[in-house]
Structure formats: structure tokens, C-alpha cells
DNA sequence: CTGCCTGCAAACTGTTTGCACCAGG
DNA sequence: CCTGGTGCAAACAGTTTGCAGGCAG
């Protein structure tokens, strides 16, 4: 169950460092272009592999958010997210409400309920501006 | 802004009917194979187009759930979902907790917060059985 | 040295779209 | 009829993976 071995390659280190530095909850692609400025020859596959690795080992968080593209967060402290319904961008909620307990919850067809989470939908400032100018 | 015109084709009717009949919150693909039993020549593209259409016109609900594959719900009443962390399957929560209000919520970078929703993670019975037998 | 990790490219999955024909109202 | 909807296939976007060589420890 524990990791057999871990190699801190330059790629892995830079990915982790840049993810922790940014506050934008980037997709793998976005992080790829950020990291490429420091490691021009890194491949997208490596970014994916390391994001998976880092998420599995608990150093970063895979966001369980709606939307087609996965996003990642270098901040693993417990906090909640707003997601822009137009572009999928994610922001941090500063004053989180308590998510309800799942103790004793019983759902048909489910063996167990592990935890709950509050998700917020919103409109980010960029999209708000864009909608105002576009007829939509 | 209103729909210009709407044609209730056989395909659209069957898709809507089958989606309302099932309780499994199917993906487009799953619904495709259900519908194909009645309309063997229907195309997957048509299923996607109609799911989009029906969701936009409010007759069905696109589930804003985590996971890579979109799922749809023929039940548009307000209720909450548990999602299996292994297979993505979705179940209905029978006794929903109230989702917190978003009045006056302010998030940096966001113009507005529209609504909140509680999501539950769980393990469905199928996966629970499978995990027990597999070493994982 | 050893074998985990990388770059590269091809493969895959889920979804969208262009086009010519079809059929609902 | 007329124009939205359909089937089909090709195109896309995001992600995963096989392979040969590279580098961390």
C-alpha cells in the first residue's frame, strides 16, 4: 500500500512547485504551459503522470468538481470552491459553511456514504463581462 | 430567446421517455444503448443533440457532478446525489439536507454566486463487492 | 548500476460537427 | 412544402499508454 519508492525528479519538483504557487486551480494543460517555461522539453504525458502521482500521494488535490476538464489544487487544506458555470474556472470560498455529516446515511444501492461537500456555482468576472457585451 | 420551433420527433420522444423511466442517471452512451433497442438505427450524435436540447429546455437535468462523463436525470425535482468514487454511478439521496444560502456571498474573482449544492461521495454496492474480492 | 521516470507518438474515450437526406407540422 | 432533425463519419478535446532511452539514488 505504501509507495515502493519515490524519485524526486526535476519535472516532478517543478510541477509541484508551480502548482503550489498558482491560485488558479489549473487544468493539466494550463499547468503544462506554465511548467514549460522552465522545462521547455517536458511532455504533457509527464504532467499528467505526475499530477496523478502527486494526487495519489496526497501532496496535491484533484478537484472533484463538475465540468469536463479535471483541475488540480496545490492547497490541500480543507476549503470549498465556486465554479464558473460558463468557463469552468474555479475560485476559493473564503468562509466555508460546514458540510453536513454523513453519519448513518443510507442510500439505496450504495454500500456506504463517505463524505459530503458543498459546491457553489457562480459567474466569474471575465465571463460576466463577456456576457454583457455578447448578445448570447 | 424563446425556441423558434420544436419538433417532437420519434427519437426525441423515446429518449425522453426512456430517461424518465430509468433511475440510473445514465450517461449518453448508456442511454444510447437503451434507446437503440427501440430505435435500432438511431445515432449516438442524435442522442447527444437531444440530451442537450432537452436539458436546455428544462425537461431533463444535466447532472453537475464530478467525474469525467456527463450524466443525465429525467427527474427534474430538487434532490441530491451520491456519486460512487470508484465507478461514477449516481444514486438519489432520499432525505436531502438543506444546501446553504448564497446570499451576500463574495468570492474573489467572481461576479456572483448563483447557488450551492451538496454532493456526496460514496461506494456503490457493486464496487463494494468488487473491492472486497480484488486486492486493489 | 537499476529500475523508475521521461519524451514522444499513437491510441482511446467522450463529445461535437458538417453534410446530404428525411420527415414533422 | 420548408426547415429543423437525423444518420453517418470525420474531427475534436482531454487523457492514457507502449516503448526506448535517461537519470536519480
From TrEMBL, chains A, B:
Its cofactor is Zn(2+). One of its GO terms (biological process) is regulation of secondary metabolite biosynthetic process. GO terms for molecular function: DNA-binding transcription factor activity; transcription cis-regulatory region binding; zinc ion binding. InterPro entries: FUR, Fur_C, WH-like_DNA-bd_sf, WH_DNA-bd_sf. Coiled coil: none annotated. Binds 1 zinc ion per subunit. Signal peptide: none annotated. This is Fur family ferric uptake transcriptional regulator.
Amino acid at each position: 500500500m505504501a509507495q515502493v519508492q519515490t524519485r524526486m525528479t526535476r519535472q516532478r519538483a517543478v510541477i509541484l512547485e508551480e502548482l503550489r504557487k498558482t491560485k488558479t486551480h489549473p487544468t493539466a494543460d494550463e499547468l503544462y504551459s506554465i511548467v514549460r517555461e522552465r522545462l521547455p522539453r517536458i511532455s504533457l504525458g509527464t504532467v499528467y503522470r505526475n499530477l496523478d502521482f502527486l494526487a495519489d500521494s496526497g501532496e496535491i488535490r484533484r478537484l472533484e468538481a463538475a465540468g469536463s476538464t479535471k483541475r488540480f489544487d496545490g492547497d490541500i487544506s480543507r476549503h470549498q470552491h465556486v465554479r464558473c458555470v460558463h468557463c469552468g474556472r474555479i475560485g476559493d470560498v473564503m468562509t466555508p459553511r460546514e458540510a453536513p455529516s454523513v453519519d448513518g446515511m443510507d442510500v439505496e444501492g450504495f454500500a456506504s456514504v463517505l463524505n459530503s461537500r458543498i459546491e457553489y456555482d457562480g459567474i466569474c468576472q471575465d465571463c460576466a463581462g463577456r456576457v454583457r457585451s455578447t448578445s448570447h
